[in-house]
Design goal:
CATH superfamily: CBS-domain
Strand content: 25-35%
Number of domains: 1
Distance between the termini: 33 Å
Order of helices and strands: EHEEHHEHEEH
Shape: globular
Largest sheet: 3 strands, mixed
Helix content: 25-40%
CATH class: Alpha Beta
Structural class: alpha/beta
C-alpha cells in the first residue's frame, strides 16, 4: 500500500479522504518544513476517534513521535535492534538523499509488522 507523506498542518479528516481515494492507507508520514516529525498507523480505533467529532485536528497533533528513521539499505535485524534500543513503535524507511534534499520515504515498519512476521514464521516452521 502506498504511504503518503503529508505536512503536519494537514487536517486528519482531509487525510481520511485521501486514504479513501487511494483505496485505503495504513500509514502516513508527517513532516514539518520537509523534515520527518512523526508517523501514524491508521487503524480502526483511530478512524473511529476521528469520526467522533474531532473536526480541526491536524496530523501534527496526532502523529506518533516515537519513531526512528533508517536507510533502506539497512538489514532487517539492525532495524529491529534499533527500534528495540530506542523503544520506537515505528521505523520510517528512507532512501539516501543528496545533501540539502528531502529524504524520500520508501516504507514503514511497525512493531505489529515484526510481530506478524514472527508469528507467520512459527506457523511455517512448527517445532
Amino acid at each position: 500500500m502506498p504511504i503518503l507523506v503529508l505536512d503536519e498542518s494537514t487536517l486528519f479528516t482531509a487525510f481520511l479522504g485521501m486514504a479513501a481515494a487511494h483505496g485505503g492507507l495504513r500509514h502516513v508520514v508527517v513532516t514539518r518544513a520537509g523534515k520527518i516529525i512523526g508517523g501514524l498507523r491508521v487503524n480502526m480505533s483511530l478512524r473511529r476517534a476521528a469520526g467522533s467529532g474531532v473536526e480541526g485536528v491536524t496530523l501534527g497533533e496526532v502523529a506518533n513521535s516515537n519513531f526512528i528513521v533508517v536507510d533502506e539499505s539497512g538489514a532487517a535485524f539492525d532495524v529491529i535492534k534499533a527500534m528495540s534500543k530506542q523503544q520506537a513503535t515505528m521505523a520510517i524507511i528512507v532512501s539516501p538523499a543528496l545533501p540539502g534534499a528531502a529524504q524520500t520515504v520508501v516504507g514503514v515498519i511497525t512493531k505489529e509488522h515484526i510481530a506478524d512476521t514472527v508469528a507467520q514464521s512459527v506457523t511455517l516452521y512448527p517445532g
